[in-house]
Amino acid sequence: MPHTKLRRLVTISVAVTLGATALAACGSSDDNDSEADSGPVSLTYWSWTPGMDKVADLWNKGQGKKDRITVTVKKQASGDTLVTKILTAHKAKKAPDLVQAEYQALPTLVSNDALADIAGDVDGVKDKFADGVWQQTTLGSDAVYAIPQDSGPMMFYYRQDLFKKYGLEVPQTWDQFAETARALKKKSPETDLTTFSANDSGLFAGLAQQAGAKWWTTEGQKWKVGIDDAATQKVADFWGGLVKEGAIDNQPMYTPAWNKALNTGKQIAWVSAVWAPGTLTTAAPDTKGKWAMAPLPQWSQGDSVTGSWGGSSTAVTTDSKHKSAAAKFAAWLNTDPKALTALAKEGGIYPAATTAQTSDAFTEPPAFFSNQTDFYTQAADIAKTTAPSAWGPNVNVAYTTFNDAFGSAAKNKSDFGAALKTMQGETVADLKKQGFEVAE
Fold first, then answer.
1. β-bridge partners, 218
2. Geometric angle at alpha carbon 358, from 357 and 360, rounded to 5°
């Protein structure tokens, strides 16, 4: 899909995040690019990654000094807070040159004409990323709206010692996962394999992604919402069934109770992403060296595909007067070996660039997983199998509805399928309210 068509299709009201009047998207990165042919260039980058200023200093003292391009990092909050700030600044034509943006936020930013198409400035970059990751920055079009920075390939984490104690095998399929949960309940009724949590919609989205879901697609000039598609129904029915029968817990993550369950061995597994060791370090400090990581269970034996939970990119704004220079820095930041090593060291990120995932920065396992020396070797192999995602212009509405509908269903052990229909209906209704044409 040409990027001009994409912009028309995803033109969205800023009311989604700002409560303001709708803005019509127009233009692209090559419109009115006033970058000077000579002379120094100063760029501003809004980012929340820890230590990003130190990484930018590498550029300023190296390639940036040679190219006379200086980058200044301005620390920001993440998530919807930053999206709102970017759109507010863009409305005043004062957005920074570069912004860090989560993948699911890109359609909203593109629809408001806040991000430039930098395809012409980043030739040869695509091959450095897994297809499923790169696709998130193009939105299925010929344009390139950002360069992938970090990724969150999903994996299965389990207490190695307790799996051995209870005589459990690491599940390779979701059917085996369910049988493992039931077997554990028979051997230790007070112990749960894991929990279904409705307070982080990104986890469910990643599981649906692995199953082949495409939540937002287009038909001509219309949006089509597929949240209630067959793939997601399968995921919802699977987890809802386990909750209803009591084979797993139904409590939310990131609570004191959840931390205690992990730390004491009341819960012995967690479906998470590559960043999980950092969370476990805080949530379950007494279990260091007792966990192991394996690929996510598959829907069919022999398959090899994972979803993603989290991740962000570096984008150039349409307000920048130096788009080519900004694109050059964005490409360097997320593909240069020294930059990626610094990002891993200073920011603690798992880089999206496949070459960086096997670099010197990842030769040693996370300290919490010192018992699994091949942690990052496995992680790199898993990351290559990331399935493509399909984000739309009102992810925030879908996610909020998930938290409410699935939160109630999990608590009451009621029908997850009904919760999914609610999520679908609310998302479609919001698109129509914003003036989009929606294919039924």
1. 223
2. 110
